[in-house]
Amino acid sequence: MACQICLPLSSRSPYSYNHYHHSAPKFPSSKPKALKQQSQENNNNPKKETLLPPLSLTKRRLNSSALALILNGFLPHNSEALSVKELELERYTDVDEGFTFLRPSSWIKVEKAGATVLFEEANKGSNNVGVVVNPVRLNSLGEFGTPQFVADKLIQAEKRKESTKDAEVIGVAERPGQGGLQVYEFEYKVDSTRGGMKRIFSAAFVASKKLYLLNIAHSDKPESPLDTHTRAVLGEILHSFDAAPST
Question: Using the 8-state DSSP alphabet, how is residue 100 labeled?
Answer without folding.
Answer: E
